[in-house]
Structures are given as C-alpha cells and as structure tokens.
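Field log, afternoon session.

UNIT: design team B
ACTIVITY: writing a sequence onto a fixed backbone
BACKBONE:
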C-alpha cells in the first residue's frame, strides 16, 4: 500500500497502489489517482485503526471489549492479514501456543477455526479430531486451514460489536493522509479504492496496524526501514553500513490441489527462464511426497487440507499452500518507493510465484523418476482471487517505529542469556517465542535461536504524537529482531495489548508515554492485560484459563514472586520457601506472607497476594518492583 509520499515529505499525495487489484500482466492499472480536491465525508470515532490484519483485528477486539467505539479500515476485502489475505494460513507458532504461549483470544480464534472442520466428522474415528485438530496435518504448523475459514472466525469474534454498531469496518479503504493538530492525530483521510472517494475519520486516538507501517511517514513519525548499521544498534550481527533497501523477502503464496491422473499445467509466465537459470526453483533437498532422510515431504510442509483425515465426501483431494524459498522475492523493496516502482516489483513477485508453480508442474523431480507434477491444479477459490495468488503479498518486514525502547538481538538471542528466558522486562505487555528468522540477505549468524521473550511497552511508545500507537510489525524492533516478532501469535498479542493500551489512554486521558513512565499507571495497564488472558511472563505450566493466571502473571512481571532462572515452571501446587519470598516482597507484606508460605500452594499464595494489591490493602504495592539483582532466583 504505497502512496506517493516519500519519508518526511510534505508534498500532496496523488497516487496510490491498489495492491489487491494488481494484475501481473497490467500492473500500471492498479495505480489510482486520489481526488484530493473533493471534500471528504467526515466520520467521527473515538478510536481509529488503520489495517485489519492480525494486529488490527486484535486491537479492535480488545478496544470493543473495553467499551470503546471503533472504526477499522482495511485495504483488502478480507480481515486477517497474514492469516488470510496474505495466504499464510499454516500458522507459525510456538510449542506452548495451546496453553500458556499465546493470549486467550488468540486461542479462541484457533478454537473457532477448528470447530468449522470438526463439524465434518472424522474418517474412521481419527484421533487428530481431538482438541489438537490440524485439518492440514502439516509439519510446519500445529494448525493449517483454508484462509476463508479464518475470515469467518474473525468475523464471528467481531459480530456482536458490528451488530450493535460499536465497531464499523471499512473494507477496501487505504489511509492516504494524516492531519495533525496540537501534537495529536486529528484525523486520518482514507481513499475508497472501489468508489474513488475520500472519507475523513476524526478520532481521539489512532492505531497503525498496517502491514507496512503506512501511517508513520504520513504522520511524520520517525521510523527505520531495512538494515541498521552496527553503530546504530550495537548488535553483533548488524553490518558496518546501513542498507535501507535490504528488507526481508516478500512472497505471494498460492494453493494447489493434487488431482491424480489429471493435467493442469499453466502457461509459462514471464521471467520464468531468468529465474530458473539462476537456480531459484528447487526442492532444496526435499522430495515431493516421501521423506528424504530426515527431511519430511515438501507436499506436507504447509498442507492446508489432508483429505484422508475426513470422510470421502468432504474433501476429494489434498490442498497445499506454497510458501517456499523458491517463491520469496529477494533483493526488492517496496517501502518508500514510487507507485510505478511498487507495481513493477509486485508484478515480478507474482510472476515468480507462478513461475515456481510452472516449475513444479513441468520440471520438479518426481519421487519415482521423471520430471514435473502436472497433477497440481492452481486453486483460485482458496485465495479468492482471479490469478490464484494471495490478495496481498506476505509481508515479513515493515517500517519500524523509532520507539522509546528498541528491541535488539542481545535482548532475545539465546546466546546472550544463560537462563531459560530472554531479557526480563518489568514493562512487559506480552510474550513471544520464535527464532530470529530472516528471509533474504543477512550477516552470517544474524538468524539465530531465541529464548522465550517479552514485548516491552517501551517498544510501542513514541514522543511525537500524544494519541498514537503501533500494533503489529511496526513496533520498535531492529531488522534483526523483527525476524522474531513478525509471526502470527506475536503480532496478535502486540495488537491486542495496543487495543487495551489505547482504551486506557482514552479513558484516563493520559498519553501512552505518561502511562509507560508512571509505574502505577503501567501496573494498572498490566493488570488489565492479565485479566484479559494476555500472558506477560513466560511459564510453561500456567495456562491462560488457570484460576491463578492473572495473579501469578501480574506478580511475576512486577517482580513480586521468586522466579527460577533455570526453568519455565511455576509449580502451582508447590510451596514457596519463606526465605525466597523475603528477597522480593516488601517487609510489611513479607511479614504476613511468610506465615502462609508453607500452608498455601504457590497458586494460592499468589492469589492472596494479588487480592491484597487489587483491594488496596497495601496502597503502594503497585509501584513496587523487584529488588535489584533478584528478578530471577
């Protein structure tokens, strides 16, 4: 989504790219002129959210559950971003995502997706139709599905708010101008891509959840893009010189059905020979349907439908989504480029994906010998597009806010932490776990393992505007750490916490910066988050639905519980030793707690301590944090 407005430019915006409508054979037709001379219709709303991807939907859901009225604009015809419109419906998650490794609402979304498939019944009592159902039985994910099913699930989560008009969604609308007054976003002007008209959203608070951080340049907020230099980030694996155009590869995923005995070869797309001769198309040591040593089948990597798991009448054949290194477009950047450059690069990316499909159909080595799998049929109905490619490219890297705190590789990289967790942030507003996964050019060693990490509140805070928050991949990360914060459940968590954060700002009339800087206000926000089922601290034995979840999470992030440095276990049924409590609790609180430590379980004692805080029996406890050096015991 690119408007003709370069970074920090005050020039009028006249042209934008309608990415969803782009055709590879006629890319220039997707460049539209914005009629700025026309007076826009004005809509007033307390909270405006630009972008209906995972972060944007999560932010909207949090805000409406907080009682706010919300206007949400989305440039495509689907909510969900990488879950849906970008085609990556085989979720990239962590091993604790079902219990303590994601938020309650994200788990609710996953449950709704599974319920859709459970209604079909299982073939021969298939055990995979239990709580952990994966319709695709894929090996990269615990849950893979058709994108439209996630669209329906998201709409279901928002249905009541839409019905009572607490939420209004404007599909096919692109933000093109931000108006500033007295240090605040006064309004955001959006272009209706289908009807060639403008809408102006006057708001009290603004959230940017766009896939490329569109509002950052429009609002003249400082941001980074591409690779920073070692001098700027002091990261071991940053290069000596910055490379602004070196962003992670983007991709147009597509879905294919395997129809045995049939032939569905597409026409050879443009640029095919160039890509093929460069060695771009490859299985990279994998085979199509069988294992190759320790390498599992390519076909099952991001398979969305495993037909054999269902009764025969439900799905005739397997369907797989293709998102592989071979259709990652590398070395190209669409951030802060002219519309003509953007459409040229997007068309190239589309031809690359179609080229990989053509290679799979005609030249890929068959497991039994020979070349090509003509049985692979492109499925436009899966992506709901004419060309069969995703509505929007899979974006791995956005503009990134120059935030009050920038997350660097030393904060989350496994090599930098001897304990089981990454750096512990007292201002945590969420958690995540994924390797630093960088697609494209990088310094050797930049892609690396991480320890379970947190989302610091400071990475969402900036000082230019008093009523603005980011809500997805546009938070304060570096190019390196973006590689770990860009995945589905993490983006959802960022957006959800941003939604509650914005709601608190609206209710209290305080700025994000003021809430972040004030320990009491920050603790109030964190208390809201844990009661919404958002984990702020890593445990592997404290599910979000545990009765002690809010108490343990709040006390842990506030530094008021002993935490084992060598284990993610909390041990709810175990007991605290009084001497361990003495290192973290204020003297007056410890005097009462030590007598209960051996009679109450950890979960019970945490709940007791939490009640003292919430009911104000110790008025200053919300401002207390752990003693220096005792954050992990």
């Amino acid at each position: 989504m690119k408007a003709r407005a370069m970074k920090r430019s005050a020039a009028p915006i006249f042209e934008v790219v309608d990415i969803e409508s782009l055709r590879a054979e006629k890319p220039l037709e997707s460049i539209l002129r914005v009629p700025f001379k026309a007076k826009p219709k004005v809509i007033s709303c307390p909270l405006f959210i630009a972008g209906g991807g995972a972060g944007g939907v999560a932010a909207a859901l949090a805000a409406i559950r907080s009682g706010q009225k919300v206007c949400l604009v989305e440039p495509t015809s689907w909510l969900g971003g990488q879950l849906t419109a970008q085609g990556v419906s085989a979720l990239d998650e962590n091993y604790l995502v079902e219990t303590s490794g994601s938020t309650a609402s994200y788990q609710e979304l996953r449950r709704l997706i599974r319920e859709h498939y459970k209604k079909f019944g299982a073939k021969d009592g298939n055990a995979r139709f239990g709580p952990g159902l994966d319709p695709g039985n894929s090996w990269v994910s615990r849950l893979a599905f058709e994108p439209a099913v996630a669209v329906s699930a998201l709409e279901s989560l928002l249905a009541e708010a839409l019905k009572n008009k607490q939420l209004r969604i404007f599909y096919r609308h692109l933000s093109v101008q931000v108006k500033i007054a007295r240090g605040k976003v006064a309004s955001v002007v959006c272009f209706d891509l289908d009807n060639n008209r403008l809408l102006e959203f006057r708001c009290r608070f603004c959230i940017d959840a766009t896939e490329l951080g569109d509002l950052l340049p429009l609002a003249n907020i400082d941001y980074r893009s591409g690779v920073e230099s070692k001098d700027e980030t002091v990261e071991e694996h940053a290069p000596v010189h910055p490379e602004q155009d070196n962003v992670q590869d983007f991709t147009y995923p597509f879905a294919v059905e395997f129809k045995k005995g049939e032939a569905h070869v597409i026409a050879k797309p443009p640029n095919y020979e160039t890509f093929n001769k460069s060695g771009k198309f490859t299985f990279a040591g994998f085979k199509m349907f069988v294992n190759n040593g320790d390498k599992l089948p390519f076909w099952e990597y991001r398979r969305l439908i495993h037909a054999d798991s269902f009764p025969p009448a439900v799905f005739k054949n397997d369907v797989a989504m293709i998102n592989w290194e071979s259709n990652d477009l590398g070395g190209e950047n669409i951030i802060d480029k002219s519309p003509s450059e953007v459409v040229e690069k997007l068309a190239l990316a589309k031809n690359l994906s179609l080229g990989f499909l053509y290679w799979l159909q005609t030249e890929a080595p068959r497991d039994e010998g020979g070349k090509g799998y003509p049985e692979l049929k492109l499925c436009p109905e899966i992506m709901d597009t004419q060309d069969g490619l995703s509505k929007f490219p899979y974006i791995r890297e956005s503009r990134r806010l120059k935030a009050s705190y920038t997350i660097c590789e030393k904060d989350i990289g496994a090599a930098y932490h001897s304990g089981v967790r990454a750096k512990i942030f007292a201002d945590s507003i969420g958690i995540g776990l994924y390797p630093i996964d960088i697609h494209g050019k990088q310094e050797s060693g930049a892609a690396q393992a991480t320890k379970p990490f947190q989302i610091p509140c400071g990475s969402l805070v900036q000082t230019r505007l008093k009523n603005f928050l980011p809500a997805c991949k546009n938070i304060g990360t570096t190019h390196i750490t973006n590689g770990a914060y860009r995945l589905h459940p993490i983006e959802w968590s960022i957006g959800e916490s941003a939604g509650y954060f914005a709601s608190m700002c609206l209710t209290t009339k305080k700025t994000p910066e003021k809430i972040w800087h004030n320990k009491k206000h920050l603790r109030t926000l964190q208390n809201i988050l844990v009661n919404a089922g958002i984990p702020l601290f890593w445990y592997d034995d404290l599910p979000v639905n545990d009765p002690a979840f809010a108490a343990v999470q709040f006390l842990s992030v506030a530094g008021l519980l002993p935490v084992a440095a060598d284990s993610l276990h909390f041990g709810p049924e175990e007991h605290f030793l009084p001497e361990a409590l003495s290192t973290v609790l204020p003297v007056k609180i410890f005097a009462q707690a030590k007598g209960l430590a051996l009679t109450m379980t950890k979960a019970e004692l945490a709940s007791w301590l939490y009640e003292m805080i919430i009911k104000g029996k110790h008025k200053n406890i919300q401002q207390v944090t752990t003693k220096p050096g005792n954050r992990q015991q």
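LOG NOTE: Residues 339-362 form the longest helix (24 residues).
NEXT ACTIVITY: expression trials, pending approval
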